[in-house]
Amino acid sequence: MMMLNLEQNYEKMAIDQLRGYKRLVGRIKMLEKYPVSGGMRLGTIVQDGQLQDLHRQWRKLAASGADHEALRSTEAKIKALLEGQLGTSDGYQGILARVSELEELGRQKEQMEQAMDALDDFKHEYAQVLKLLYVDGNEPHDIACDLGISLSTFYGWRRKALKEYGILIS
Questions:
Q1: Which of 43, 107, 115, 130 is most deeply packed, by most CB within 10 A?
Q2: Rounded to two decimals, what is the model's pTM?
Q3: Considering only CA atoms, which of 56, 59, 57, 34 is closest in space to residue 45?
Q4: How far, CA to CA in Å, does 148 sit from each of 11, 109, 119, 151?
Q5: Between 50 and 153, whose confidence is greater?
């Protein structure tokens, strides 16, 4: 009984994550194209290693409960960098919030892709089923036809693939 619940939990976790993949990728694209100032896009300034380093340093200081002066000093460096790049300091905290979101979404996307790659390495057909169903958005009947399998085989592979994927991401 407990094993069945555990398997169902893995499947639910996998389905929830895989169903959100397209939305996650879409949000990343929107954030990268977000206009910040002077014709620059958020994706352009995020690629700046200096900004990423300062932002990472600021997050570590904030998480560790560092003194207020250290946080203010790092914020001032970020603000100066953004002013230099964008010609304005208006809304730099909003820009940083979007940078944080973009970085977190990138981490989530990478984790999902690594799990799919790992699944593909040891059960190619399972990874294929999940990719075709959740990433590409194909219908079960079409996937079964494309793979040359019966619909019942498709559903069996899907169930097993979700379990394996769930184990990988847990």
A1: 130
A2: 0.71
A3: 34
A4: 24, 30, 20, 10
A5: 153
